[in-house]
Amino acid sequence: MDSGLIGSVVTVLFFLLFVGIVWWAYHKDNRAKYDAAARLPFEEDGRGDQAHSEEKLQ
Fold this sequence. Notes:
Layout: H1 3-25, H2 31-39, H3 48-57
């Protein structure tokens, strides 16, 4: 086997891996998980700014 063939095979394998990752990321079953993760910064956890200011004092 020469290096050109090995390079071609590796390129095809990485392309297939890329396509698989893109398919997995955009699959409809994952949408609910991604929507929930996108809302996390906007949800309150009950600590608020008071707990953050108490951490600064310590």
